[in-house]
Design a protein that fits this description.
single chain; mainly beta; five-stranded antiparallel sheet
Length: about 140
């Protein structure tokens, strides 16, 4: 499942999200997290990993592309490397705009596509959808 949080849709539409210049971060959640599009801020997330070597990561080389072939606009970034994880198995990734703390950092999107591999102490790298172009968020028809 992948989805854009309602808060993510809101900050895209009111232009308070600047994908390229804002600090966009990613966090990993375990299988106890249940995606809810009504979650608004990082403080609403439960089940974030606590592995001793785990830390949130900042996305790099972000861009925005219009995709007329698929009638969409996409937000891209490099794969995210969370380093060696040994004690937990990630079940999904959450993207958010970092502001100053968890209570004011709005959620953008969630994905559990491609998760399920057990952390084994090696580097844990997450690619965006479509590995070749690292698409992280897709904006299609808006109702």
């Amino acid at each position: 499942m992948a989805g854009v949080y309602n808060r993510g849709k809101f900050i895209i539409m009111d232009a308070s999200l600047d994908w390229v210049s804002d600090t966009i971060q990613a966090l990993l959640v375990d299988s106890s997290y249940v995606y809810d599009p009504d979650h608004n801020f990082v403080a609403d997330i439960s089940g974030e990993l606590t592995d001793g070597s785990y830390s949130r990561q900042t996305l790099g080389n972000k861009g925005v592309t219009e995709d007329d072939t698929n009638d969409a606009a996409v937000m891209t970034a490099d794969p995210v490397d969370f380093g060696a994880l040994t004690n937990e198995t990630p079940a999904g990734i959450v993207l958010f705009k970092f502001v100053t703390n968890d209570a004011d950092s709005p959620l953008i999107s969630f994905s559990d596509a491609g998760f399920g591999a057990t952390a084994n102490g090696a580097g844990f790298v997450v690619n965006g959808e479509g590995v070749s172009n690292n698409i992280w968020v897709v904006a299609e028809d808006c109702p």
